[in-house]
Predict the 3D structure of the following.
Amino acid sequence: MKAIELIEELKNGAFELSGRTCDTVKAGNPEKEIGKVAVAMFATVDIIKKVKEWGADMLIVHEPTYYDHFEEMLVNPVTEAKKKLIEESGIVLFRYHDFMHHRPIDQIPEGEVHYLGLKGKLENTPYSASYMYHLYEPITALDLAKLMEKELGIKHVKIAGERNKKSTNIALCFGTPGGVYDLLRDENVEIVLTGEICEWMLGEYARDAALLGYNKSLIVMGHIGSERDGMRLLAEKLSKKHTSFETKYFECGEVYTYTEE
Ligand SMILES: [Fe+2]
Ligand SMILES: [Fe+2]
């Protein structure tokens, strides 16, 4: 199979996109035959080195490699050095973002919910880039945050607002989305899960709402912590579906390190 054929397959089943997409080949020759396909959340310098060592022909990532949504090559020494490293590797680098999200079941929340292991029903919301997850068994924000640290391997999950009341209506708004404020204000939403936020606005809103007696919390997982499991599940699905090439998920790790080891 050629890299371009896999790319076409990955795009299948998605809604028709309006406007420009960021899902393009960033490096390498898409006509290349693929024997090994690596999947990662970000093509960090570390990931590029590791997948090259593994012998990858192709690397599929969810997020930008060059710090800009359309990767219009911000000129700086870091970008230049990284570009050189990627080009020398000969790996076909493909960003799989829009076609992953814009489909009847968004593959990112699907992966997050799958590895979290909480049973519930996933539904669309009227707000931007978000889903409702109605849990079959109620849980507190504190226990949910602990479960995320355990099952999703997130180092420090942050909670703003109510920690101890049981909830079943969880909004999923992963990454750096636009809909968190709308979700927090929605009376049918108790907990909002997201990747990264503006603290003075959204964090403080959740804190005050809880102090005024509302069952409202915001759980901040970090951008990587909130989306990488979608890529993990993608790698698992590709491994099962394709035997003509090997697929492996590579963990890029969270962007922050902490004072403890
Ligand atoms: Fe994202
Ligand atoms: Fe995303």
Observations:
- Residues 74 and 95 are 17 Å apart (CA to CA).
